[in-house]
Design brief:
The structure is a homodimer.
Chain A (H helix, E strand, L loop, with lengths): L1 E8 L3 H21 L1 E10 L2 E4 L7 H9 L11 E3 L3 H7 L4 E4 L11 H10 L3 E4 L3 H16 L4 E2 L10 H8 L5 E7 L2 H13 L3 H10 L8 H4 L2 H15 L18 H9 L2 E12 L2 E12 L13 E6 L4 E6 L4 H17 L3
Parallel strand pairs in A: 1-2, 1-5, 5-6, 6-7
Antiparallel strand pairs in A: 2-3, 3-4, 8-9, 8-11, 9-10, 11-12
């Protein structure tokens, strides 16, 4: 039985969902995978709950959080002011599970946690895009030097195995193109407009009313979230170093029902598509509305579903779609990656 | 750099395609994965070509085969009468790559090769369904006892990563149901009938003319190939021991255009669907025509495409579709699994 001792940074929705999954499934994972998952530390803004050997008593800790308690106040374990960096530097863990909110300006606080974890040779499992979108090449270089491994499934589409197909299922084949519908909010709006002949403004309003779109929908509707995900996917698979300024992005805010109708009359469907293409040894990324042929495997991905198509030389086209994008879906992707730290030898 | 020395059984279309991929990609795989793939022996019906250290000179060997030569006559390496079992017993390899024709009565000759390889603690990578459909539980028990690992991606849908989603991408989640369109021939026929309002007989004739269906289409149209694949998928993922007599199967030979039209009028699409369901701790398998809701992720998989949908508790539904099903596609799946023997630690 191998033990992986984790430090979890962030005790918000995704972090708590992850802890709940570990609490519920640890015994099953021990039996099935010979892997004992231990949560040694949970860090949030005011401090941390830290355990010695054996890990935190998760059910009691989760009850404490649910009742409004803060990690740093958890009796017997709480340490006020203990930061993620200090915990990583002073204690010993096998992997960091990063669930703090994404910050696309500085990547912080996650960037500091991730670099501290890499410096100690830990594996990093992250639902947070920030550090990787902003510092992909640097973090990969640091990780290679200290034999850390970076797992970012949860940051690239939650439960949709966006990256797995490229990393594992097409290994040995050459990927020549990647196309993705990587943002559920924009796909919901475009689908709504298509099927119900509504305007962009009405579709957005409905998405907001349903909680699918944020009050400030900029990140989604301007295509930035889609861009961030294709940067992570392309940089991982093509070993490129695209940053946020290297990708031409067009959002969907100027799409009218007429555009959608015109596309339909040409036998196509208008979708917000992220593309990564390899041609002549050069990788090009772009994000924008694209009229997909009705037979394109992404053309029938509707409402808030996401999907990604890999075009390869020897395996043809492979498309994966679906996957829960709730906090539980993201937590499930984190748990998957934690198990991957165990089942992958490289 | 780690070396994996292979014995390849079968030098037909799939075997040769695999050797060609190894010849073309060995250097790239060394650079990318730190894995040196060496083909130590290629066995066919009359004997084998066997190399000492360093492996067979693949480009010259492939030229020799293309010119009509037999492995046992390959100058400097050929051994008349050397069987797969004798080669496995007398020489040393890391993995068996099984590409002989599937035999669903006895599983031979592959069954003997696979058991010999397991007895020596080798990994087994197989495009051949026979031994696994007929002797799944026994082979898994033997493999567990001798620390062999069984990789059967190529036997469960060629380049479509049918099994990968269940094994890797949903790991940590509980799979509650699997539904698949796992046979391209029958899906081609049903799609043809649906879109072109043709009879079953006419659609079958066209599939045969196009080389999509065999002269004797029984294995496909009676649902047996679909059954064999769902047996392999379910037994792998649910640790069950279903055999070919344990699965109720209905083929598509009695489907009329009227059936398809009636389904369409109810907002559904008639597909040949393999189902594995877990309920109350019990797994049930079945294969038969099923009217899928038009929004079901498998409903838009048309013509000779295949796909599989996993329903899970924490990740929602995940569907993968596509993948070349040619000999090259199967060979690419074999190459993927050979690389998986290297990148997976369990």
């Amino acid at each position: 039985m191998k033990t992986k001792k984790l430090i979890v940074c962030g005790a918000g929705n995704v972090g708590r969902s992850f802890l709940r999954l570990v609490a519920d499934r640890a015994a099953a994972i021990r039996a099935k995978h010979g892997l004992n998952i231990e949560v040694g530390c949970v860090v949030d803004v005011g401090g941390a709950a830290h355990a010695g050997d054996g890990g935190l008593p998760l059910p009691a800790f989760l009850d404490f959080l649910t009742a409004g308690g803060r990690p740093e106040d958890f009796p017997g374990y709480g340490q006020k002011g203990l930061t993620g960096v200090a915990a990583i530097e002073n204690y010993s863990f096998d992997a960091l599970v990063e669930t703090t909110p994404t910050n696309l300006k500085t990547g912080e606080p996650a960037y500091s946690f991730v670099t501290a974890a890499i410096a100690k040779g830990m594996d990093v499992v992250s639902a947070n895009k920030g550090p990787f979108v902003l510092h992909f090449a640097e973090l990969n270089k640091l990780a290679a030097a200290s034999r850390s491994r970076l797992f970012i499934s949860a940051a690239t589409g939650a439960a949709l195995p966006t990256l797995d197909i490229g990393k594992f299922s097409t290994v040995g084949a050459d990927i020549t193109a990647i196309e993705g519908i990587l943002n559920g909010t924009t796909n919901f709006i475009l689908t709504k407009m298509y099927f119900e002949k509504t305007s962009y403004a009405d579709a957005l309003k409905e998405a907001q009313a349903m909680g699918i779109a944020e009050t400030d929908p900029t990140l989604d509707v301007e295509g930035y979230d889609t861009r961030n995900k294709i940067i992570l996917v392309a940089n991982t698979l093509f070993k490129t170093s695209f940053g946020i300024d290297d990708v031409p992005v067009t959002g969907i805010t100027k799409i009218t029902y007429d555009d959608i109708d015109r596309a339909a009359k040409n036998g196509t469907v208008l979708k917000l598509v992220a593309t990564a293409e390899l041609a002549g040894g050069k990788v090009t990324l772009s994000v924008g509305p694209k009229a997909l042929d009705k037979n394109h495997p992404l053309a029938t991905i509707n409402y808030s579903e996401k999907g990604i198509t890999y075009t390869t030389d020897t395996m043809g086209q492979i498309t994966v779609l679906g996957g829960k994008s709730s906090p539980v879906g993201a937590a499930a992707a984190l748990l998957k990656d934690v198990i991957h730290t165990h089942i992958f030898s490289v």
